[in-house]
Each structure stands twice: as structure tokens, then as C-alpha cells.
User: Which sequence fits this backbone?
């Protein structure tokens, strides 16, 4: 087995390395990279919650024909994500086996995390950006000339301040909070993260008891960011990361909210539960030394009625749902709920 990375430093609090390649792809190309159909490739793993944000946004906006997508396998070693799902283990567009090759093309000897999502310029094979938070905002605001007819406005200007505020709290205490608990190197740091996580989940439970979506009456960027953590909560974070005060399905409003989004085109049809579990339980060997992947939990509940329609709201606002998943991008049978 290839050498695995280390995720827990004994005696310390987990701190996420947020030194990303912050170059932006914009309408005017002010960072040297202009929006251009067919030029870029989005590299993701369906296992990764940060990458899954980009997968959902790309699908909701209908950018499949202008921004291709490469899917790395769910497990990786200490060096890099790999394209072991593709024939010969090589990405068919970039012609590389390891995502690190695209990073090294941009920055020789790149010494920070080889992370997904990453957008790669197919002209020279170099990573443009791996700044996952800015990436989806730019897809929503800089690529508007290329979105599908009926695409929703996921970052409406009048609501941006509130979306940013809610998303910041959710990132600190929930999206990253589960990692601060799971990768804690001491009992004290684990307990701090655990309490902050469930305090915020209680806050979200109350907020979502009276409104269908996090901000406004339509799906926004804030919902995408919360969803990718919630969908991993019971399969991974509850047990593997010791976030076990409650399971998601024991928090009524959050569980119904998560099912509502899961059953909305563009969300659940991008989720690969097999990849999610394989990644966390196989890669994090300092937490799960045996690499055994649990068979549970039962996923059929994701398809049960959620009743959130009674709260009103219009999922896509004045827009429409996305069409069928693009050929070749379907989640395999047996990897989905139900």
C-alpha cells in the first residue's frame, strides 16, 4: 500500500491550511485567465465535500458543455489525488496520472496541499486555482454568459451580504468544524470543536424550522455549502469524526431540509456514497488504522417525503431545474441512496 498522509498531530488543535492558489478566472481576464468555453477542466473527487460544492454548482448552472470535469478516485496517498477511475489511470483530457502534475506545471516544487477542486488550463496543463470558496462564486458571477437557459441565481446581489455571513458561520463551525473534531490531537480541542459544531447545528435547526432555505426563499450558495457536509454526516462524521451527539436523522428540521435538497435535481444525483465512505475510512489511517469501511448506515431515508413544501419557497426562483445528468457523469448504480 502506498504511504498515507498524516492528519492528526497529537496534543494540538487542528488548523486547516488555507493557502490556496487564488488566481481567478474572470470575464475580463484581469488575473490572466479569461472565461472561455472549452479551455478549462474542473478536477474533482465525489468523495470531497469542498469539490462537491463545485460539482453541484456546475450542474445547477448547466456549465457542462463549457467546463469539462475530470473525476479523481476516492482514495489517494500522501502524494496526490489520482485518476484511477479512468482507463489506464490517466485523465483523458489532461493526460496525467496524478493531479500533482498539474500543480507542478504551474508552480514547480509546489509544497502545499494538492487539493480538489482544482481548475486546470488545458492549454498548458497548469492549475489555475484551487480556491474552492471563490471558485463557486466565480462560476455564479463570472460565467453568466454561458449558463443554461433557466439557470438559477445562486448568489443574488441583494442577498450577498447575508449569504456571506451565514456561509462564514457554517464554514467555521460545521463545514470545517467536523474536521476540527475529527482531526483533533487532544481531548480538549476535540471537545471545543464538538460543542461549537452542535451549537451551530442547533442554531441551524431553529433557523430552518421556519424557512425552507438558509437565505431568502430560493436555493443559494449558502445551501450548497451546507448540503455537502450534511450529506456526509451520518455516513462519516458521526462515527469516523466522533461527531456523535446526534445523527442527522435525529434533527428533524435539518434532516428534512437535507432530504429536500437531496431530492432536488442537481444535488442528490451528484452524491456518491461509496466514494465518500471509501475516502474517509481508507485514507485517514491514523484515525482508522484497519481501513475497514462500514457497511451502514441505511441510506433509503434520503428518498422519503420531506414535507418542506409547506414552508413555501421556490427552489429555482424564476428559473428551472437542470436536465438529466450529462452522459458519462452519472453516479454508478449501487453508489446512490435507495
Assistant:
Amino acid at each position: 500500500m502506498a504511504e498515507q498522509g498524516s492528519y492528526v498531530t497529537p496534543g494540538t488543535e487542528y488548523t486547516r491550511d488555507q493557502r490556496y492558489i487564488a488566481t481567478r478566472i474572470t470575464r475580463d481576464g484581469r488575473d490572466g485567465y479569461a472565461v472561455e468555453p472549452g479551455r478549462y477542466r474542473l478536477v474533482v473527487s465525489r468523495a470531497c465535500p469542498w469539490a462537491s460544492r463545485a460539482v453541484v454548482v456546475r450542474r445547477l448552472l448547466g456549465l457542462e458543455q463549457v467546463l469539462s470535469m475530470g473525476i479523481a478516485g476516492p482514495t489517494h496517498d500522501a502524494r496526490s489525488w489520482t485518476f484511477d477511475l479512468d482507463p489506464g489511470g490517466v485523465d483523458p483530457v489532461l493526460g496525467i496520472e496524478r493531479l500533482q502534475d498539474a500543480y507542478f506545471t504551474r508552480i514547480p516544487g509546489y509544497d502545499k496541499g494538492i487539493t480538489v477542486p482544482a481548475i486546470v488550463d488545458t492549454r498548458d496543463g497548469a492549475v489555475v486555482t484551487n480556491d474552492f470558496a471563490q471558485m463557486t462564486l466565480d462560476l455564479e458571477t463570472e460565467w453568466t454568459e454561458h449558463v443554461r437557459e433557466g439557470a438559477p441565481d445562486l448568489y443574488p446581489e441583494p442577498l450577498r451580504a447575508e449569504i456571506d455571513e451565514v456561509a462564514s458561520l457554517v464554514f467555521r463551525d460545521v463545514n470545517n468544524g467536523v474536521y476540527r473534531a475529527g482531526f483533533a490531537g487532544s481531548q480538549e480541542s476535540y471537545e471545543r470543536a464538538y460543542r461549537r459544531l452542535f451549537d451551530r447545528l442547533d442554531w441551524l435547526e431553529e433557523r430552518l424550522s421556519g424557512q425552507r432555505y438558509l437565505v431568502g426563499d430560493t436555493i443559494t450558495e449558502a445551501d450548497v455549502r451546507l448540503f455537502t457536509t450534511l450529506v456526509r454526516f451520518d455516513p462519516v462524521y458521526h462515527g469516523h469524526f466522533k461527531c456523535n451527539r446526534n445523527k442527522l436523522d435525529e434533527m428533524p428540521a435539518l434532516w428534512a431540509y437535507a432530504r429536500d435538497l437531496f431530492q432536488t435535481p442537481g444535488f442528490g444525483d451528484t452524491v456518491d456514497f461509496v466514494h465518500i465512505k471509501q475516502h474517509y475510512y481508507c485514507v485517514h489511517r491514523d484515525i482508522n488504522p484497519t481501513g475497514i469501511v462500514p457497511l451502514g448506515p441505511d441510506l433509503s431515508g434520503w428518498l422519503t417525503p420531506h414535507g418542506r413544501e409547506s414552508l413555501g419557497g421556490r427552489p429555482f426562483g424564476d428559473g428551472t431545474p437542470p436536465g438529466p445528468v450529462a452522459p458519462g457523469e452519472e453516479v454508478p448504480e449501487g453508489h446512490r441512496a435507495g
